[in-house]
Amino acid sequence: MAKTYEEINEKIARGDAVVLTAEEVARMAEELSPAEIAARVDVVTTATFGAMCSSGCFINFGHPEPGLRMESITLNGVPVFGGIAAVDAYIGATEVDPNNPRYGGGHLIEALVRGETLVLEARGKGTDCYPRRYARAEINKDSVNEIIMVNPRNAYQNYPAATNSSGKTLYTYMGTLLPRFGNITYSTSGELSPLLNDPELRTIGIGTRVFLAGAQGFVSWNGTQFNTEKPANEFGLPLSNARTLMLTANLKQMDPAYLKAAYFERYGVSLFVGLGIPIPVLDEDIARRVSISNRQIETTVCDYAEKGHPGIARVTYAALRAGWVELDGRKVRTAPLSSLAKAREIAEVLKAQVRAGAFPLAAPVQPLPTHATVRGLSLAGDAS
Question: Is 129 a catalytic site residue?
């Protein structure tokens, strides 16, 4: 029998709701049918903790006196984008200090969450309404007006694993890839991954409440490069990077335990973001979806040595988690770039918040696209 959001929230308020993590439900599904799970479980918590380069924050510094129209802005030497308004800016997670490319926007965002002080330097041409041309100040999250995290592309619905067939080491956003298929890296939390537990986004859409780096945030739009046209396996799960989410939350409410800056050797700076999404078990179909196991989830192994990173194999997350897979007739080591331990921690924290009634559930105010694809960029002239 189908349940409604209201019925589930009433059970939570009474203390009667059964809330489990996606891993717990995957184990339950070894003995129970989807119908039995739908009858017994009300909410399933999902989570991931991985590098999400397409992340950043809008920040409003406040006006100095006399005023300055900030046109060139740095924080701790890292350029931030100021082409918005006089004292608004956007801190991009992957922007770097030109004099120290191992330090960038991800480090600024983590430092702000930690309550640390940053040095702001801003310049403008000077106008009649904003005559000041230069300002230097020390700021932190309590001294500025707002810091709003707005991440254009988070929570990829599966992501290809990476390997390298060439004779040289490759340094990529998928980490260091050793020559001659020396390793395989991957970056999805498997059966805990949010969009793999609701692959058609029946319960996830605009307005869905999410756990974002410790704060309660929301899905604000579909993420960039949102793609519903990727091939799927027999369980209806995409075999590579498909749907994504645009996420928003108040950075001032975030917890540094769930947000970490990172530097990938010879690639650049990124930001590890902790994300959790509760999925209400409304019916048997959703129960079947949240019952997936790592044995059922597959991804594509892509060769980063070849143009376009072609897929060369399909592997399950059970095999990836085992530490090796067979590729080209030999065993190849595997290594995760995301943290399963952190994902499990987030799923448990979220489970406790939902049980306590501190994380209200609600239907999306608008669904995300049911049909969307991704286009490449057509270049003019020789751009090699």
Answer: yes
